[in-house]
Prior knowledge:
alpha+beta, 1 helix, 9 strands
Amino acid sequence: MKNKKNNFGFTLIELLVAITIGMLVVGVGSVSLNKFNEGQKVEAARQEILANLRLARNYAITEQFNEDVPANTDRVIVTIVNGTMVAKSQRGDTPLSGDQTFFSKKINLKNISVTISNPIKFSVTDGRSIDGIVQITVKGDGSSDNISKIIIIDNSGLIYEQ
């Protein structure tokens, strides 16, 4: 009868299988983490845009104009240009001359795109959106699955997320 030694070492095949399984787990985890991070950036930009839109609407409703904005303003128009959201006064269909800005806030849009279906115009008399339904789409850079969030301003001026 032969005497067997208890050998607790691993064979080369067992080590290769264990390393391969570990690499697969790390790979799947890093892809999920990248998607999560991109989703968080899109969500942060959406929250910032929502807060600024509500601020612009509140300016229109309460007519809290600064001293540079004339009393004959009848709309607050909101634009997003080069990552900056600007709310300015407007009368009729033309912006008023001079620097009559309620606020100008930088939005962190690194690797994020924002598209607006119509210009955003809030009436000073009641804070309603006067151009019908406005849809704002906030999208990630597309490096992972297309992550996008939508903000809707309906005919009554209510701002909500979809």
